From TrEMBL:
This is ATPase component of ABC transporter with duplicated ATPase domain. Residues 226-281 form a coiled coil. Signal peptide: none annotated. GO terms for molecular function: ATP binding; ATP hydrolysis activity; DNA binding. The keyword Cell inner membrane does not apply.
């Protein structure tokens, strides 16, 4: 389901299992059923909400030099650890500082840089906006633009996800729903679905309407529409349910999923129009 260069945002309410999913992928948690198989060439870097293995008795530059003395950029040039530290907002005057003297945010930033120096080809980020300041997040966003592997990010931050994710895995009602687009697009669709549900409720409440003497009658065309509208609504609802099932069954076929997502959006729009017509026609005296 995850492919090279994928930028996936993982969203959902607190406690639904987003961080658990990352822990399973990272191998830091055993599944209760089945197994997680990691390929031999996969190198995962996991930026979790807990810092692990940060020896605070070491100095900033020495901590990183244990991993590498220099780094090759994607363009083939070489960058020293000192230069890389500066890119990650550690001025030269701080390179000899003991890690224990750093602020909590600086420790997180240093830990992130160490993970990136280990040359991962899969990057997992768990709520990075909780621990990193805006300047560091900007540096991270720039780094991710040149990162060749997939990135999976758990976050509630709309702005950050719009910058780093082009696909969404949404935890909804005990299921994981794939969505192709930015987080804002996903939120817009959720708002649309809520509006549609409200229209359904409103239509149901107004099915029985008082007949007023001055109410005009339907035209012939409206009578024809009224006769078939409930069937039209049922057909659209059935197709929407079928599309959602197809999306679950084709989770790894991104071409198919994109086509299904487009049809789903069209059917939802058509269904909302039918609900609005139903509400309008139900007020007439046939």
């Amino acid at each position: 389901m995850v492919q090279a260069k994928d930028r996936i945002g993982i969203v959902g309410d607190n406690g639904v299992g987003k961080s658990t999913l990352l822990n399973l992928i990272a191998g830091s948690l055993e599944p209760t059923a089945g197994q997680v198989v990691i390929g031999e060439t996969v190198r995962i870097a996991y930026f979790s909400q807990q810092i692990e293995g940060l020896d605070e008795s070491k100095r900033v530059i020495n901590y990183l030099q244990e991993v590498a003395e220099e780094v090759k950029t994607s363009g083939g040039s070489t960058t020293s650890i000192a230069e890389l530290l500066e890119q990650f907002l550690f001025p030269r005057s701080t390179h000899g500082t003991l890690i224990e003297k750093l602020s909590g945010g600086e420790k997180k930033r240093l830990y992130l840089l160490k993970l990136l120096l280990e040359k991962p080809n899969v990057l997992l980020l768990d709520e990075p906006t909780n621990d990193l300041d805006i300047a560091t997040l900007t540096v991270l966003e720039n780094f991710l633009q040149g990162f060749a592997g997939p990135v999976l990010t758990v976050s509630h931050d709309r702005y950050f996800l719009d910058k780093v994710a082009t696909k969404i895995l949404a935890f909804e009602n005990g299921k994981i729903r794939p969505f192709f687009g930015h987080y804002t697009d996903y939120l817009d669709e959720k708002a649309f679905e809520t509006e549609m549900a409200n229209q359904v409720q409103k239509a149901e409440k107004e099915k029985v309407v008082k007949i007023r003497e001055d109410k005009k009658r339907m035209t012939y065309q409206e009578k024809q529409e009224w006769a078939s509208i409930e069937g039209d609504i049922e057909a659209l609802e059935n197709r929407i349910a079928a599309i959602e099932e197809e999306m679950q069954a084709n989770g790894s076929d991104f071409g198919k999923l994109a086509t299904l997502q487009k049809e789903l959006d069209e059917k939802n729009e058509a269904l909302l129009e039918k609900y609005e017509r139903y509400e309008y026609l139900s007020e007439f005296d046939s």
